[in-house]
Automatic annotation (TrEMBL):
CDD domains: NAT_SF (cd04301). Residues 1-132 form the N-acetyltransferase domain. InterPro entries: Acyl_CoA_acyltransferase, GNAT_dom, YpeA/RimI_acetyltransf. This is GNAT family N-acetyltransferase. SUPFAM superfamilies: Acyl-CoA N-acyltransferases (Nat). PANTHER family: ACETYLTRANSFERASE, ACETYLTRANSFERASE YPEA.
């Protein structure tokens, strides 16, 4: 997971193996996908939170992330989630298009949330999707 995340997030801070291991020790967190494309999700009560989604650059633009969104949504619903949240960098146009096609709506903005070494900080968009 860490290798795929590093390849996918070359502009940002990739997560380490230790971070993935720590998160996956929680019974509330699950991973879905494979080394080409994966999602890490936490379900608490009736909320699912997409912690991260990464597609290796060698496998982008093949529909893997779109299919994965449907898959993890189904698992989250089986775990009792009625809606899902995520946050995405405002300058991540590919991810924003994906989330738009999955019926997510922007509900909040975190100004300057993502630090960029090659330019100004970027806002985080908090997005929500209702399963019902």
């Amino acid at each position: 997971m860490a290798q795929t995340h590093l390849a996918a997030f070359s502009k940002g801070r990739a997560w380490t193996s230790a971070e993935f291991t720590s998160l996956l020790q929680s019974p509330l967190v699950f991973a879905h996908g494979d080394n080409r494309c994966f999602a890490l999700v936490r379900v608490v009560a009736d909320e699912a939170e997409l912690l991260t989604l990464a597609t290796h650059p060698d496998h982008q633009r093949h529909g893997l992330a779109r299919g994965l969104m449907e898959d993890w949504h189904r698992v989250a619903q089986q775990r009792g989630a009625q809606h899902a949240f995520l946050e995405v960098a405002a300058d991540n146009s590919a991810a924003r298009r994906l989330y738009d096609t999955c019926a997510y709506e922007t509900v909040a903005t975190r100004p300057g949330y993502y630090a960029r070494s090659d330019g100004p900080d970027v806002d985080a968009l908090v997005m929500r999707h209702a399963f019902v």
